[in-house]
Design goal:
The complex is a heterodimer of chains A (about 625) and B (about 375).
Chain A lengths: L9 H36 L1 H8 L4 E6 L6 E2 L5 E13 L1 H4 L2 H11 L4 H12 L8 E4 L4 H9 L7 E10 L13 E3 L2 H6 L10 E3 L2 H5 L1 H5 L3 E7 L5 E8 L7 E3 L3 H11 L4 E6 L6 E7 L5 H4 L4 H9 L8 H4 L9 H11 L8 E3 L2 E3 L6 E3 L7 E3 L1 H7 L2 H22 L21 H8 L5 H8 L9 H12 L10 E4 L19 H15 L6 H5 L6 E7 L22 E8 L6 E7 L5 H17 L23
Parallel strand pairs in A: 2-10
Antiparallel strand pairs in A: 1-8, 2-3, 3-4, 3-5, 6-7, 8-9, 10-17, 11-12, 11-20, 13-16, 14-15, 18-19, 19-20
Helix pairs in contact in A: 4-5, 10-22, 14-16, 14-20, 15-20, 16-18
Chain B lengths: L1 H16 L3 H4 L4 H21 L4 H22 L3 H28 L7 E3 L3 E3 L1 H18 L7 H19 L4 H17 L4 H21 L3 H11 L9 H14 L10 H4 L11 H34 L3 H25 L17 H19 L8
Antiparallel strand pairs in B: 1-2
Helix pairs in contact in B: 3-4, 3-13, 4-15, 5-6, 5-7, 6-7, 6-8, 6-14, 6-15, 7-8, 8-14, 11-13, 13-14, 13-15, 14-15
Classes of the chains: A alpha+beta (about 625), B mainly alpha (about 375).
């Protein structure tokens, strides 16, 4: 059938469009009536309601900031709480000429021009209209009285009581718990504006920063009726805020204080872990500072003093301090050697006082220039024999060595809940090619075997190495929080346990570390001799400046700040470890002589009762195996 | 139609006798008068809404001037001549939208602008508001009415491409307006009611799908807040609560010019752009808004008359769609500010501050004028 030819029928088209125009016109009329009905509803029927809302500005929505969660040590001692404090706040919209009002405030309280600039900056940060902006904190009684007397000259200015963070333990937890500070412009941009609408402070470092969402809580709000001056007359509706979660730290304030005392004012750091749980028992980075200074805003002068001090009190040595691990890495290297099968516990190496690579002239020196003779693995750990470990590292090669040390956490972040932890550095062939555009040299593997060279570790990583040897490779990330809101923190990214082909290798290394302390030839036997329980330990020295071939370390020639750092790792009781410690003393020189006594003092404080004997709960079980060899 | 034809002849006679300046300039006097009233009203309200900001007023006045020039220039063209260029314009518009899409994604965020520094800066999506109805009208005018399934499908594809591109910018408000302007052409072309009903029933599943796959969080938040503004009085609910309070507190006669507390105390956000009707409602009350609605209604009525009187199918469809879309602007804006509709970011035509949308709108009215003033009196015999 042929298709009918379609002609354009203009008249039909026009009729069609005209019909639709009529339909459209009717629809438009109806919708305009809907709009007018809506406006009639708002402007006539609800007029009273809306005019009270608006005309007198009577009803306000005010955010109620949640109370920040408290922080306790493991025994319930308060580490961070909130104290009422009076602050001066100003509402720009009510102040009229607010800059002039600022002048009056400065005059009444006899403040400096510098304070005025600060106030002005805070005022300009104001957020919501009619929101009071706090400009001065911790008013004294006298200041409150002066404001009250001059209130008539200060429109829009009021004294408000608010809760402000306080750290009753002062310097003790500055590097672990951290501190809160005023929210700055950059933070304001990324924060949830609703949840933080009533909050003026935010965690800046440490636990306060890491657990900020949990500590902060959920904002509440209330609708209040105010008079023309903005004074609240009554609360119409209130939704309570949800206070922040409390945090119980795994740290113990007594151990913390004992550790700080043991360090005795020297610059350095101490980490003590429970190797069975990963709990951080003490974390010292000295010198420290008073976190309370930062809460309401530290003055520029005070801050630059802290920042520019050569002792660097703001520097968190535990998490950010990078040091070559020195001989403290040897237990981990020994595990690598045993597990990969390049040595057995009875493999012996003859030490003439140095090590030479085949076909190379260079002599890699043992610290003991006269040599230790023929040494096996345990003796090598006991004597900290460099020659043995040069040989071991050479046999392993950089790839296997790097692989094992990475499994101990070197070169990566090990903690669960610490802010801005440094990953340190575990060098590899790829790393060196990317960094220096050079191939890896065999000699660099050798010095890695004794913890020198490119490798860099944090004291926290060394403590974790010690804990891993203590608990036979079971990985639990060190954490500061024992519970958050009653629940232990969960590790979202657990490290795989170090599983050895022969688990007995752990005992070999542990035995070597025990001989460091308890064998008369052990490098730290002077410290071990005084101990009533068995300690497994390893000393180390981190070079600050390189010593050239053939030169000798001569302390008298070196600047005090260029002397070696003293390192020591240990765990005890050796049979059933309850505490693992890493000590670093800046420019302390002697790992065994300077750092080891500090480590022992920390372990004593944790393990010994009042009578100087092991607390019963820490006593080694009777069935514990005797150490492999004396 | 014969009736109409007679009247046309007599109209033409009248025109020839009194060919006034306006007619020779191809300007429609009624539209021009109404637009002038709106422009004056806009500056009046804007002075109050912007907090007596004279710079802003001057900018807006300049935009009005630019818009008027665009309108008059467009009015000079023969609609048939314009129709010839529509397909090319459409392709160019879609091309620019694709450029924006690519650039925007490179810039890691939303970009709606094409910016050649120092030369020009514009939103291609704005052009689409004019090009979209023109394209569909051009396409529909080539076939018999009512449209057949094949033509509907092709039209929907033509509408769909720029719609999706604008949604991706992301600018849901403009995208919906572009969609509406195309859809109104189909409506004017006599799209069968069963298709319209079918489309309306299909909106529900499409809306659900958009919710889950297309809409950004801030857009979802707007819808949620619209459904229950009290749920978030400190955040997004703030705008709606405050604008309702502003309008409602105006009462029947309003608080008086420059006396609106809500806007002058900064309670009202975006008081000089999307939410300007709240200022009008607060300061001039129900009477003020009704007067504004009256001016809009007269403009729309004139647009519909032009639609009916247009001689070409292209002209009829385009004029009808432009007029209906204009009403959608008005309805969506007032609806959203008064809490009837979710906040989608559609300015109030001719009153809200903003140059780009002004120029687009006035170009649209330029087209209406072109359609109306270039009618041929003998051609159809």
């Amino acid at each position: 059938m042929p298709q009918p030819i379609r002609l354009k029928d203009h008249e039909k088209d026009a009729r069609q469009v005209r019909n639709r125009v009529v339909v459209g016109a009717v629809a438009i009329c109806l919708l305009i009536i809907v709009l007018i009905a809506r406006l009639y509803f708002l402007q006539v029927i609800q007029y009273e309601y809306h005019s009270t809302l608006s005309e007198n500005n009577r009803v306000h929505v005010q955010p109620i900031p949640p109370t920040r969660g408290l922080i306790f040590d493991r025994n319930g001692v308060v580490v961070a709480d909130n104290r009422p404090s009076f602050s001066l706040s100003m509402t720009r919209e009510r102040a009229g000429d607010w800059e002039q009002v600022l002048d009056v405030i400065v005059e009444v309280l006899e403040l400096s021009q510098e304070d005025r600039t600060l106030f002005e900056r805070r005022m300009r940060q104001g957020r919501r209209p009619f929101e009071p902006v706090p400009i001065l904190f911790e008013l004294s009684e006298e200041q409150i009285a002066r404001i009250a007397v001059n209130q008539f000259r200060l429109p829009g200015v009021e004294v408000v009581a608010q809760l402000v963070r306080h750290y009753p333990q002062g310097e003790h937890f500055a590097h672990s718990v951290g501190y809160v500070g005023r929210i700055n412009e950059a933070e304001l941009k990324v924060l949830d504006p609703v949840n933080y609408s009533g909050t003026h402070h935010i965690g800046k470092t440490g636990i306060e920063r890491f657990y900020e969402p949990q500590l902060h809580g959920q904002v509440g709000y209330e609708e209040v009726e105010t008079n023309a001056r903005g004074r609240v007359l009554r609360v119409l509706k209130r939704t309570d805020p949800v206070p922040g979660a409390d945090i119980v730290l795994s740290m113990d304030i007594r151990l913390q204080e004992a550790a700080e005392a043991a360090l005795g004012g020297r610059r350095g750091s101490i980490v003590a872990l429970d190797p069975n749980t990963g709990e951080v028992l003490a974390m010292v980075s000295q010198p420290s500072f008073d976190p309370n200074l930062f809460v309401t805003g530290i003055g520029f002068k005070a801050y630059s003093e802290l920042r520019d001090s050569p002792d660097r009190p703001l520097f968190n040595r535990v998490l950010r301090g990078l040091y070559p691990p020195g001989s403290t890495i040897k237990p981990a290297v020994a595990i690598a050697g045993l597990d990969s099968g390049v040595v057995t516990p009875s493999t012996r190496v003859y030490d003439p006082g140095f090590y030479q690579l085949p076909n190379y002239e260079h002599k890699y020196r043992n610290w003991n220039r006269s040599g230790d003779g023929s040494v096996d693995l345990q003796a090598a750990i006991m004597r900290s024999n460099d020659t043995y470990f040069y040989d071991l590292a050479h046999k392993l090669g950089i790839d296997r060595l790097g692989n094992y040390l990475s499994r101990f956490g070197i070169g990566q972040k090990v903690s669960l809940d610490m802010f801005e932890e440094s990953p340190g550095l575990m060098p590899s062939r790829e790393w060196k090619r990317a960094r220096y555009r050079q191939a890896w040299f065999p000699g660099e593997t050798l010095i890695l075997g004794i913890g020198q060279g490119y490798m860099q570790t944090t004291p926290l990583q060394l403590a974790q190495v010690s804990a891993l040897v203590a608990n036979h490779g079971k990985w639990i990330r060190p954490h500061l929080a024992k519970t958050v809101d009653g629940v232990p923190p969960v590790d979202p990214n657990p490290m795989p346990d170090i599983v050895l082909r022969n688990p007995g290798d752990w005992a070999q290394v542990s035995a070597g570390m025990q001989q460091v302390m308890h064998n008369p030839r052990g490098t730290a036997h002077k410290v071990g001799d005084t101990s009533s329980y068995r300690i497994a330990g390893k000393s180390g020295t981190a070079q600050v400046v390189a010593i050239k071939q053939g030169e000798k370390y001569d302390r008298s020639k070196l600047d005090e700040r260029h002397r070696d750092h003293a390192l020591f790792i240990a765990f005890a009781p050796a049979e059933a470890p309850k505490i693992a410690v890493a000590v670093m003393i800046e420019n302390g020189e002697g790992g065994s002589s300077v750092a080891a006594p500090v480590a022992k003092a920390v372990m004593d404080a944790w393990l010994l009762g009042e009578n100087g004997q092991l607390k019963t709960q820490y006593a080694p079980p009777v069935t514990a195996e005797a150490p492999a060899r004396e | 139609m014969s009736n109409n034809f007679d009247r046309s002849i007599s109209d033409e006679d009248v025109m020839r006798r009194r060919a006034s300046l306006l007619q020779r300039l191809h300007i429609d006097g009624q539209l021009f008068l109404l637009l002038t009233v709106l422009a004056a009203g806009s500056l009046f309200v804007l002075y109050s809404a912007s907090g007596k900001n004279v710079d802003l007023l001057l900018k807006q006045a300049t935009s009005f001037g630019l818009g008027a020039v665009a309108m008059c220039v467009i009015a000079q063209f023969e609609p048939r001549f314009l129709a010839r260029w529509v397909p090319l314009g459409y392709l160019a518009g879609v091309g620019l939208l694709i450029v924006v899409d690519v650039m925007g994604h490179n810039a890691m965020g939303a970009t709606r602008w094409i910016n050649i520094p120092g030369i020009i800066r514009f939103q291609p999506a704005e052009f689409m508001k004019i090009l979209m109805p023109a394209t569909i009208a051009w396409y529909m005018a080539r076939h018999n009415l009512p449209p057949r399934l094949k033509h509907i499908a092709i039209s929907l594809a033509l509408i769909g491409i720029p719609f999706v591109l604008v949604v991706r910018q992301p600018d849901l408000g403009t995208a919906l307006l572009v969609l509406a302007s195309g859809a109104f052409v189909l409506f004017m072309a006599g799209l069968q009611w069963r298709w319209i009903l079918g489309a309306v029933t299909a909106v529900v599943p499409v809306a659900v799908a958009m919710w889950f796959f297309v809409m950004h969080d801030y857009q979802k938040q707007r819808v949620l807040t619209f459904l229950d503004p009290e749920s978030d009085p400190l955040g997004t609910g703030w705008n709606i609560i405050q604008s309702k309070a502003a309008i409602g507190s105006g009462g029947v006669f309003g608080k008086g010019w420059l006396l609106g507390t809500q806007s002058h105390l900064d309670f009202l956000p975006e008081s000089h752009t999307d939410f300007i009707i709240a200022v009008l409602g607060e300061e001039f009350g129900l009477v003020g808004i009704c007067l504004l609605l009256l001016v809009y209604a007269l403009l729309i009525a004139r647009g519909l008359v032009i639609t009916v009187q247009a001689q070409t199918l292209f002209g009829k469809l385009l004029a009808g769609s432009l007029t209906m879309t204009f009403f959608v602007y008005v309805f969506v804006n007032i609806g959203m500010v008064s809490g009837l509709l979710p906040v989608v970011g559609v300015p109030l035509p001719f009153i809200s501050y903003g140059g780009t949308s002004l120029v687009t709108l006035m170009s649209g009215f330029g087209l209406l004028m072109a359609i109306h003033t270039h009618r041929k009196w003998i051609a159809q015999v």
